[in-house]
Amino acid sequence: MIVNDDTRNHTCPADDPVATDPRPAPVRQVKKGRNPGLPLDVAMFEGHAVNRSAAERRVATLAGRRTAKKLHQAAWLVNAIRLVDLTTLAGDDTAERVRRLCAKARRPLADRIVTGLGIEGMGLTVGAVCVYPTMVPHAVEALEGSGIPVASVATGFPAGLTPLDLRLAEIRWAVSQGAQEIDIVITREHVFRQDWQALHDEIRAMREACGAAHMKAILATGDLRTLENVYAASMVAMQAGADFIKTSTGKEDVNATLPVSLVMVRALRDYGAATGYRIGFKPAGGMKQAKEALSWQILMKEELGRPWLEPDLFRFGASSMLGDIERQLEHHITGRYAASHRHAAS
Fold first, then answer.
1. How far from chain centre, in Å, is Cα 125?
2. Residue 246 annotated in active site
3. Active-site option among 85, 104, 243, 246
4. Residue 294 and which of 8, 35, 59, 82 are 20 to 30 A apart at CA?
5. In the beta sheet, which residues pair with residue 27?
6. CATH class of 42-343
7. Averaged confidence pLDDT in the chain
8. How far apart are CA 277 and CA 279, in angstroms?
């Protein structure tokens, strides 16, 4: 099953929340392979104004301009499951908890729902399982043969304030244990001081430590104070070689929001236009309801196109949302809502 494009009331935005050169950016041919990054180029983001009120107006229209009902809504929700990074990042994590999470990752929907939707042959799984570094070996073992990648947070998550050599060592250790994706945390102070070279150098060193593992750069946008800072940090992370940019650790007071995500998505679009490389995006933290999965997918579809509805370019850091998606899909089949505890995420 794929996301059905039969959505309604599509119009173009009346105003652009991210101020840019009025001339359209040249669109380069899409390049294959990982983003190699660039030397720091402040001209790509300095002086780039962001209109917060326009960004808020833009995202407020998403639900009204594109609607998906019944079978189409079910298709979008099934697609959302493919995009979830199923995550446990608790201080009391255990090997057994990770194994349960991995079992859910392999079979994210109850058999009765899979049969009711008629998707038995789809091989539906989540996009990845994300854990702390010490839990990586347990996740790798539990997911063997599934094709589901193991992601690990690293670099002193969530604050990222340990010495750089220790953060790099943590990345290398997680990769040596089998992590295929690494979610790194930036030093927010570099952004506050607008020390873009320091930020670029730090992220570049982390990318090199990741080796073949893909790197998601967590910007902790709730801490960055302004949307201009969000745009600049997004651009520096991509210039430093990030494979994904990610909104939040999930531990900030404010996590993923649609206006912030719009600014980051516009940065993705601008970087792609300048370099030809497609960079992934991951909103994380605070998303709990299935309807939010629809809003973020619509944002990606409208701003970047169909390729960003695939797990190689888009992920949700929203494990608790999976339970509500399962509940909504059961309602689609039966017409009745099950108790939420029947669809626990792990």
1. 16
2. yes
3. 246
4. 35
5. none
6. alpha beta
7. 90
8. 6
